[in-house]
Design goal:
TIM Barrel; 565 residues; single chain; alpha/beta; 2 domains; five-stranded antiparallel β-sheet; 17 strands; Immunoglobulin-like
């Protein structure tokens, strides 16, 4: 998983330092940035503080190639485009794509880093890259498994048994978490397919677990009534491994591991010519087509490797294939990508045919349209023995913050190589589900208010959501005691209407309240209805309408009036 975040393009690519974005996020408090961005102040400018980003000029894990090579690969693809309205052009995608209705209201999904890296379970899911290039991890690998000429990354495949994998138990856990969709890794940077594949021999049906992991999980998840997608990070494999010259020379001379002809297409190290790159890109296309046709995914999620503009011809063909297939199935589906991968203009406020995903970073203010944040449940994306798992309370706070800004949380899980989830991850998921059973009304099918929140270190930290004519004020942190003050609802503010009812989700009866120039004071129940994040429901005020868009892009000039003071 690439941790870099590159920003901004105006008329040409301009870098923006990721530290500036992180600082802006960390320092964001109740201010003008708490409101919906206005057309005049935000969308005319390239503003890194709302997560607007273009592509970097670096390769960002993409194959380091050229448009000519990619166009040559596209010509070698013999798959027939399914009949339907989509053609492999930006104009066609823009004219025909719509965000799936199921995604607009889902608000909470589960991601998953699932792969061979969970066998060594050391440091990160980039173990393969680091065991061949990072001196510290290479030494650890040599100590525990032997040198790469004796035990290469390929030798983890037989140890990736998944012998305790119970897809029905997984799916039941996912449902109990309150998630509405699930996106496991079909293939990570390591190039191992987690499904029964006819286009690559390096797959879970023929090796390792000897079963169709994606297929089995797909059936179980859908049986629980959840949407099922897949993530594919495979395009990043072509130049993922970059060993030091001495190791390369030794393995090449001995014709082992990275230079074993039987594993050449697994590692993609021995040959990185233009011809080899074209072969790789054609196979990447074929793998995606196979995933699409075999499992009819509700979402196809790509990592940073597809970001580069020279890959556009390939990406457009995948999009047209996927969306035409979905038309034939009668399903609403979507790609999900990062930065400006599907934004030929270079700015992700103009994404075409894809839902924007932010990796681990939450925009500091409201961003209208549809988007999601993939965020890990622990300290590493893939399972490692050192990982620490976040509490249910910490994830709930993240979920509420994202939803208050109009987004969706895609929470990453980290299964072990035997097919189980550690107890800590299960407890966190069940804790989230317990909270959503009480407070889900304020999360599912909701949208942003005119402000995402108020408060901070010295005052109640509150996040707002809207559904229909109800305003929800979710108090984060500890139970506030006998009363709560909501300053954004001060007497005389610009909110129209009159408060007629105040209740708390999970508690019976109405709550008494007073409204003054200082704010709305609500007298709380004697006991808290849940362990964290307490939701006050307020009716009677006139609420702003939903801010979703067919394209998923932020609202810029669609006639909807939103307070942006």
């Amino acid at each position: 998983m690439n941790k870099r975040l590159f920003n901004v393009m105006l008329s040409a690519f301009i870098f923006i330092n990721i530290n500036l974005l992180e600082t802006a996020i960390a320092q964001t408090k109740t201010s003008s940035k708490d409101t919906v961005p206005s057309k005049s102040s935000t969308y005319k400018q390239m503003d890194g503080t709302i997560g607007e980003a273009g592509n970097s000029q670096g390769f960002d894990m993409a194959p380091e190639t050229t448009l000519k090579v990619v166009e040559g690969a596209v010509k070698q693809i013999h798959t027939t485009l399914p009949s339907g309205p989509f053609q492999p052009t930006w104009e066609s995608l823009k004219a025909n794509y719509k965000v799936p209705k199921w995604f607009i209201g889902a608000k909470f999904g589960l991601f998953m880093h699932w792969g061979l890296f969970s066998v060594p379970a050391h440091k990160s899911e980039w173990y393969e890259k680091h065991m061949y290039g990072n001196p510290e991890i290479a030494a650890w690998h040599n100590e525990h498994f032997g040198s790469p000429d004796k035990f290469g990354y390929k030798d983890f495949i037989p140890l990736f048994t998944q012998d305790k994998f119970d897809p029905d138990a997984w799916a039941e856990l996912f449902r109990k978490s309150g998630a509405k969709f699930v996106i496991p890794t079909a293939e990570h940077h390591e190039n191992f397919a987690m499904w029964d594949s006819k286009v690559t021999p390096f797959n879970a049906k023929q090796m390792g677990p000897k079963r169709d992991l994606i297929g089995d999980l797909c059936k179980a998840v859908r049986k629980q009534g959840l949407k099922f997608g897949v993530s594919n990070h495979g395009i990043e494999n072509f130049q993922f491994i970059n060993p030091p010259a001495a190791l390369l020379d030794r393995l090449r001379a001995e014709k082992v591991d990275l230079f074993d002809p039987n594993w050449a297409d697994f590692y993609n190290v021995a040959d990185r010519s233009d011809k080899a790159c074209q072969k790789f890109l054609v196979n990447w296309f074929e793998r995606n087509v196979e995933l699409i046709d075999k499992y009819q995914p509700d979402m196809l999620w790509f990592d940073n490797g597809v970001d580069q503009r020279y890959l556009d011809p390939l990406k457009l063909n995948i999009a047209a294939y996927y969306y035409n297939r979905a038309k034939q199935w009668g399903k609403e589906v979507s790609l999900s990508t990062k930065k400006a991968a599907y934004a030929p203009s270079g700015t992700n406020t103009q994404t075409i045919g894809s839902i924007l995903d932010f990796e681990g970073h939450i925009p500091p203010g409201i961003r209208t349209g549809e988007w999601q944040v993939d965020s890990k449940i622990g300290t590493t994306w893939g399972y490692t023995t050192e990982m620490r798992v976040g509490s249910a309370a910490s994830v709930i706070n993240t979920l509420v913050d994202i939803v208050s800004k109009n987004g969706t949380l895609l929470l990453n899980l980290s299964p072990k190589s035997d097919g189980t989830f550690p107890k800590e991850q299960q407890e966190t998921l069940l804790g989230i589900g317990k909270w959503l059973a009480v407070n889900g009304e304020a999360i599912y099918d909701s949208h942003n208010w005119t402000k995402f929140g108020e408060g901070g270190p010295e005052a109640l930290k509150i996040r707002f959501t809207v559904k229909g004519d109800a305003l929800y004020a979710i108090i984060l942190g500890k139970w506030p005691g006998s009363s709560a003050l909501i300053t954004s609802l001060a007497q005389g503010n610009s909110t129209s209407g009159k408060i007629t009812s105040v209740t708390m989700l999970g508690s019976n009866g109405e709550l008494s309240f007073t409204q003054s120039p200082a704010g709305l004071t609500v007298n709380l129940p004697a006991t808290a209805p849940c362990d964290v994040a307490y939701t006050i429901k307020i009716t009677g005020l006139k609420m702003n309408p939903p801010t979703w868009t067919d394209s998923g892009d932020p609202m810029i000039n669609n006639g909807v009036s939103i307070n942006s003071n």
